[in-house]
Amino acid sequence: MTARVYIPADMLSLALGADEVAKVIAETAKDTDIEIIRTGSRGICWAEPLIEVETGAGRVAYGKVSADDVPSLFAADFLGGGAHKKCLGPVNEIAFLKEQQRHIFKSCGLYAPCDLTSYAANGGFAGLRAALAMNAGSIIDEVEASGLRGRGGAAFPAFIKWRTVMGANKTQKYIVCNADEGDSGTFADRLIMEGDPFLLIEGMVIAGLATGADKGVIYLRSEYPVARKVLEQAITTAREQNWLGPDIQGSGKAFDLSVFVGGGSYVCGEETALLESLEGKAGIVRAKPPLPALEGLYGLPTLIHNVITLCAVPEIIAQGGEAHAKLGVGRSAGTMCFQLAGDIKHGGLVEVPFGISLRTLLDDFGGGTRSGLPIKAVQIGGPLGAYLPPHLFDTPLTYEAFADLGAGLGHGGIVVFNERADMRAQARYAFEFCTHESCGKCTPCRIGSVRGAELLTSSTPDLGLVDDLCDVMVAGSACAMGSMTPIPVQSAMTHFPDEFGVRATQAAE
Prior knowledge:
Elements: E1 3-8, H1 11-15, H2 18-28, E2 34-39, E3 51-55, E4 58-62, H3 70-75, E5 87-90, H4 95-98, H5 116-121, H6 126-132, H7 136-146, H8 158-167, E6 174-179, H9 188-195, H10 197-211, E7 215-220, H11 225-240, E8 256-261, H12 271-278, E9 302-306, H13 307-319, H14 321-325, E10 328-329, E11 332-333, E12 335-342, E13 348-353, H15 358-365, E14 375-380, E15 386-388, H16 399-404, E16 413-418, H17 423-437, H18 443-446, H19 448-457, H20 463-476, H21 480-484, H22 486-495, H23 504-508
Parallel strand pairs: 1-2, 6-7, 6-9, 7-8, 12-16
Antiparallel strand pairs: 1-3, 3-4, 4-5, 10-11, 12-13, 14-15, 14-16
């Protein structure tokens, strides 16, 4: 009987030596009937490289495996699921994974990323098959019923964009996937693209059918070379198997797509700057209106979503929008793919319905800090997200609850800081980050960020002036780059005032 060993080939696992582990296992097992399958990651980042072995009782996992561990693994009969210090037990019983409710990430790590047969056998293309038999309006009705909102940060209702593009009176339209995942502490898009690329392809094809677009582009950040390789192979395979092309599965409906690699600009995560980059121009934000849904890529109607939003679509169409709407809380429908990073014991991908508390995420899934020091703050939503202190950790993770705090969930990235963090330095970094990444189009962002960093460099900063500067940046910036930079600054000033000194008005009194 062939022994099957599953070894991840995502970027993190490769950086931690997964290729060498696979090589040594193959050499050690040269006289054994063994099949090594390179998969995506399950998102259990704290245990990578996570090696899995198929046994009669299911898959058994071994975590943090190095090439030096291989001889002792064979001695312990790991091919049969034998006991070993690196053994984590049955994969599906690992608490970090067992307590999740995976919908978007249900297939990551199960099989080779470009194994189309396994993808289809695990429910893949069920949504697309259903969409091929539906009219465009009915597809969008299901998206509306689902309550799906953009997972890229703005949380805009997806169906509104879809109806706008569908109603645009143009013969050529586009679907653009924003895969420029540049926020600190985020890696969900990368895990999907490296581990389950057909899910993204399926979501984009369905979006094309609904809006009348027959061309798609994945705008991929340049720092993701593994994702590029996987996506390009998956697109080729999908074309060969007639899931892309001029006549999808004999339906007479067409859709094709390509990968475009960006140039490393953070601001190109903003949809209009992304479009400029796609057109071969400098990544500078456009004035709105016109909206991209009406005048987007090359001036034509364009639907833009991020990876996770598009990957939610196949299940919505396969199971109906109401099933998706029942997950989560209120208008925060469905699941959110949170990413734990920073000083956290169990960093990784956690997919759960909206509504659990931040404390549950940090303690039950994250296991507290890796250092053992108390948590001082968490930043949610990337480098322009708010810093929250422990007394707010019982806040439910919903769009509405975080909006009430003056914060947002963004793309779901959560970075944990322990008690040694210098919060004034973190606030200053927000200004410095904006200075470095600003496209330069508008003065509040370009100059305001420089002045903000200068103010917080002073030993006795004028905090009233910092507040005034933040107000100008919010009101006058052309895009979220400038208007959101004050969020981490002012949240740090609000929740950690002792680290900023006395405000000028207080000193005068």
